């Protein structure tokens, strides 16, 4: 799961980032309107934490940009500007939740899980495809009720595909979602191929009836056999 924090206060931004990284999210940050705009134009996120008051613009304008780009990111507004008017406008512009500062990190984490779950798998906590089940709150994977041991990136890759069954996923999109936007700096995708190869073998050996099918020249698609 990939999250963008749009917050200009360095201490709070770092605190949120460290907290979410402990929860095994891929976390990116933006400290201004223009940096955030660049990121949302070029990358996709599962959730955006959005401050309204930025040094070079308004977070509400970023919400409008997301709307005009027809992007479907979950957005939680985090702002000290706790006026009813801003809250209503933010929700009307497409925000999924509004959390006034100051807030407890445990509540923020619960809100993130809630909005992501609300938009995926019809609100169900566990994710099931074929005979494979993921318990995201515990980072556990089961095949026919037998637990499957995966390393962190194998788990992240499987979770990404389990949330997008049947969709053709470009290898660049997969890399950005699982490793973050610094993936642009690498020369090749050999490390991705290695992780997927290992994951496919583990799924096959465990008797899973899902497959990460390679589509030559493009990427991968998860199918249920």
From TrEMBL:
GO terms for molecular function: phosphorelay response regulator activity; transcription cis-regulatory region binding. CDD domains: trans_reg_C. One of its GO terms (cellular component) is protein-DNA complex. Keywords: DNA-binding, Phosphoprotein, Transcription, Transcription regulation, Two-component regulatory system. Residues 122-224 form the OmpR/PhoB-type domain. The keyword Phosphoprotein applies. The modification 4-aspartylphosphate is found at residue 51. Residues 2-116 form the Response regulatory domain. One of its GO terms (biological process) is regulation of DNA-templated transcription. SMART domains: REC, Trans_reg_C. Gene3D superfamilies: 3.40.50.2300, 6.10.250.690, Winged helix-like DNA-binding domain superfamily/Winged helix DNA-binding domain. InterPro entries: CheY-like_superfamily (IPR011006), OmpR/PhoB-type_DNA-bd (IPR001867), Sig_transdc_resp-reg_receiver (IPR001789), WalR-like (IPR039420), WH-like_DNA-bd_sf (IPR036388). Pfam families: Response_reg, Trans_reg_C. Residues 122-224 bind DNA. This is DNA-binding response regulator, OmpR family, contains REC and winged-helix (WHTH) domain.
